[in-house]
Amino acid sequence: MAGSITVSSITLDSDNNFSIKSNTGATLFFANTSGVDIANSIGATAITSDKILSIANTKISGNIISSQITSVANTQISGNIISSQITSIGGSQITANTIANSAIQTGAVENYMSAAGLGFGMRNRIINGAMVISQRNGTSSVTPGSGTYPIDRFQNTQSTASSFSYQQVAPPTALAGFVYCQKATVLAARTPAAGDRYDYLQAVEGLNITDLAWGTSSAKAVTASFWVYSSVTGTFAVSISNGGVNRSYVNTYTISSANTWTQVTVTFPGCPDGTWSTDNGTGLILFFDLGCGSNSETTAGAWQSGFYERTSACVKLVNTVSATFYITGVQLEKGSTATSFDYRDYGTELQLCQRYYWQELNSLFASGIAFDTVEAHVRVQYPVPMRTSPTVTIYDNSNNAARIHRNRVGDHGNAVTITNATLHGFPGISSSGLTSGGGYSCKVKADAEL
Are 46 and 58 in contact (CB under 8 A)? Predict the structure, then answer.
């Protein structure tokens, strides 16, 4: 409706004739109409009609009740909106408590909030999913040992050493919203034995999955989404296991085009049984298969007893020398629909990583004074409380482990022990041959990974 009127009544008769009456007595009449849009109006009463398709720039003091409304925009509503078809509500003020509608798309509110820079807390249970934090290796290419972390919070498994190198790199071709990804390169082709494992994974702390209620009849589904870019095409696998790796669910996905970014979305139904820790231990593990052996193969799409990562139809990246696999934008969230990536500011992401690992190896970070010949007050406080009391290693200026540096003299050659370490830090060190009153300092790393 063009212009602006004050509405006194809106009616629909049995012959599908639709009329709107203004407070001046004028009536707008639509004969046997299949639907109308209401715009630029000031409504005095509720609107109840299955012929209304959209409402815009309108003030309504009562309820809007219609099974056909699909869009409400820039509208002030004192009552409730009740419809089974609404897909869009933009710029509207609703003073009542209810939007009753079965057709608002799942994830629409989350996507809107994310686009607006608003959050729902920690929607993404994966830490460092955008691959921006790399405390250990920076952007250097490394050939890590099995079980180590090429990038923060992501662990690699290699049954045969030197099979893969890893590196934090910029996306090989532009990928909107992401400045880093993790690159894996096959250094030597392998034919995995039955029990061999080649994978990339993140263990999620139990405290971060308590709301999923896994192991109970109320278990909630989760959805994993991520971007991959691979020189090898075919069927790949992503799986979830519990901390005891005796409950597993395998999903498969397809990379159809080589060296092209592919976004993957897979849903895992909640697991109603098994043991899923909800303390500071391992709650669940998300695995990306890179070529595990036949003992890791099962049927996709069902919870299984045992530890499985792939199906027999999946390709084995590790078979192909010089093959590359890039991944970023890894997200794991509650529900059956993937929402937009949950970006966190860099400082927050770094602190989340530092709960599990922290280092200061570029300089003599911690310093203090020796009380006597066996103890020194070389105090360290971690940036954030760690998941548990970590394994701490200190280094002298020459990077010798379990050693300390004597200020203005040189590295102290005797072995050093950390005293009274907690998840917050430690107050000092003990050794032998210290100089009472002398200054000492060291480099530090603390590891509390799952």
Answer: no
> Residues 15, 20, 23, CA angle at the centre, nearest 5°?
145
Architecture of domain 355-447: Sandwich (2.60)
Give, in order, the Cα–Cα distances in Å from 437 to each of 370, 379, 396, 406, 414.
5, 15, 19, 11, 17
pTM (2 d.p.): 0.79
User: Could you read off the pLDDT tens digit of each residue along the chain, which spans 450 residues?
Assistant: 444 455 555 555 556 555 555 556 555 444 454 555 555 555 545 566 565 666 666 666 667 676 666 666 666 666 666 666 666 666 665 555 555 555 555 555 555 555 544 446 789 999 999 999 999 999 999 999 999 999 999 999 999 999 999 999 999 999 999 999 999 999 999 999 999 999 999 999 999 999 999 999 999 999 999 999 999 999 999 999 999 999 999 999 999 999 999 999 999 999 999 999 999 999 999 999 999 999 999 999 999 999 999 999 999 999 999 999 999 999 999 999 999 999 999 999 999 999 999 999 999 989 999 999 999 999 999 999 999 999 999 999 999 999 999 999 999 999 999 999 999 999 999 999 999 999 999 999 999 999
CA dihedral 87, 92, 93, 96 (to 10 degrees): -20
CATH superfamily, with its number, for domain 155-351: Galactose-binding domain-like (2.60.120.260)
CA angle at residue 157 from 361 to 399, to 5 degrees?
20
